[in-house]
Amino acid sequence: MTSDLSFLLQAVAWPLVLLVAWLLADALNARWHIPRVSSYVAVGMAAGAVHLPGLTDEITGLPFVANVALSLVLFELGYRINLRWFRANPWVLAAGVMESLLTFVLVYAATGLFDEMRQHVRLAVAALAIASSPAGILRVVHELRSAGQVTERVMHLTAINCLMSVLALKVVMGSRTLRVSGDWLQAAFGSIHVLATSIAVGAVLGYLVPKLLKGQQFRAPDGVTVVFALAVVLLTTAAYGLKLSPLLAALTFGIVARERRVHLTNAQRNFGTAGDLLSVFLFVYVASVLEWVDVWQSLGLGLVLVLVRGLAKVAVNVGTAQVSGISQQKGVMTGLALSPMSAFVVLLVGQSGAVGFDLADQTLATIAGMVLVLELLGPMVTQRALVAAREAHAHQDS
Q1: Once rounded to an integer, what is the mean pLDDT over residues 128-150?
Q2: Rounded to an integer, what distance in angstroms lies between the CA atom of residue 254 and that of residue 227?
Q3: Angle at CA 46, nearest 5°, toward 40 and 51?
Q4: How confident is the model at residue 233, as a pLDDT?
Q5: What is each CA distance from 172 to 43, 124, 130, 132, in whole angstroms?
Q6: Over the stretch 88-121, which tens digit does the pLDDT of each residue have?
Q7: How far is CA 66 from each of CA 9, 236, 331, 354, rounded to the nearest angstrom?
Q8: Cβ contact 132:162 at 8 Å
Q9: Is the C-alpha dihedral spanning 217, 220, 224, 230 positive or negative?
């Protein structure tokens, strides 16, 4: 009888937790305008803390589903990137690169205050701190129906942050391989191969899928969206098999598809109901995999890194605000809106461990406190920043 009950709890754990997360998020959003993703994270934290059977156990396939969920988000983010804007206003691109470099330098320097931290862990933490959470930011943007200068700038800077974070982490992994093996060719080939091939695969799919859709007539109104969703699943599966970066490939896929002029309507953004369900799963899953022992042990460091990272993002966006065409106040709002840092970082560390980065577990343990703070509170900061910038149309209507 006891074994039957235990099996039942394991079987219903995920559906039950996802249902609770959805209902709680809807209630808190309606009453206090708390971003739904923050509620998803809170439920995932609670489930992980009590070690709910069937949720925190390692289940084959869950990391893959999480990567599919995030890849869909990254495709959508890539689809919103207008490369012509960078040519028309190169200061936006410059701000993204400068902000990424300053974040890396300041976070690396801050980790030096903690003597027990290994050199390559410090470098990996600095590389990961560059990234902003595309999933968290896009969900808040959708909820607020936000549109305007700050919103578009945040989308483009988030894409730059993610790209720079992947690039920096690959360099760190390559230097680690060189230090351990002494093989320059292996170190260089491993990093360059993954980056170049991931981008190439995403670009090829971004070229071929629009070509396939050209002149195609779908009876279902969401036919184009379904094709792109299936293409993202195919891309993620292929990246897993080839040990590439599905996140970088999906982002490239979206950027190239946008340049190919394939139209997705507003109603099809976020991939509909399936996208909503995968989004709930993604945030609950990422929060549940964080070890509470690691969170408490790294919380002091995490708070320091949150402040340093936030300072870098705000300072660069304020410093480049006027030359890039916005007010300094909007520069502050842009920097604050880039606060979330969650699913992208956790899954990026997981992928790095899967391809042989031997410090992946230690790195995740080191940043657990920072990830938890920015995963829970970051979306709230983004929401407040977009509202303060007067770009949140959902709040204006309520």
Answers
A1: 94
A2: 13
A3: 125
A4: 93
A5: 33, 6, 13, 19
A6: 899 999 999 999 999 999 999 999 988 678 899 9
A7: 22, 10, 32, 15
A8: yes
A9: negative
340: left (phi over 0), alpha (psi -120 to 50) or beta: beta
Position 342: which residue type? Answer: S
The CATH topology of domain 60-397 is Na+/H+ antiporter like fold (1.20.1530)
CA angle 155, 158, 163 (to 5 degrees): 130
CA–CA distances in Å: residue 348 to residues 66, 70, 162, 218, 289: 11, 11, 10, 36, 14
Give the span between the Cα atoms of 36 and 143, in whole angstroms. 8
Nearest to 360 by CA among 95, 173, 96: 173
Are the C-beta atoms of residues 200 and 249 closer than 8 Å to each other? no
What's the whole-number mean pLDDT along residues 150-162?
A: 95
- In degrees and rounded to multiples of 5, residue 255 shows phi and psi of -65, -45
pLDDT of residue 398: 46
Question: What's the sign of the alpha-carbon dihedral 40, 46, 48, 53?
Answer: negative
Domain edges within the chain = 60-397
Q: How far is CA 397 from the centre of its chain?
A: 29
Compute the C-alpha angle 41/47/53, nearest 5°.
Answer: 145
Which residues pair with residue 146 across a beta bridge?
A: 392
pLDDT higher than threshold 60 for residue 221: no
**Residues 6+ away with beta carbon under 8 Å from 375:** 41, 133, 136, 283, 286, 287, 340, 341, 342, 343
The predicted pLDDT at position 226 comes to: 83
Q: Report which of 137, 131, 132 is spatially closest to residue 270, judged by C-alpha positions.
A: 137
The encoded tokens of residue 258 equal: 């946008």
- Separation of alpha carbons 101 and 321, rounded Å: 17
Q: What are 52's strand-pairing partners?
A: none
DSSP string, 208-220: HHHHHHTT---SS
- Specify the higher pLDDT residue, 63 or 34: 34
Tokens standing for 192? 């360059």
- pLDDT tens by residue, 237-279: 999 888 888 999 999 999 998 887 666 654 456 787 888 899 9
Residue 316 has a pLDDT of 97
**Stated length of the chain:** 398
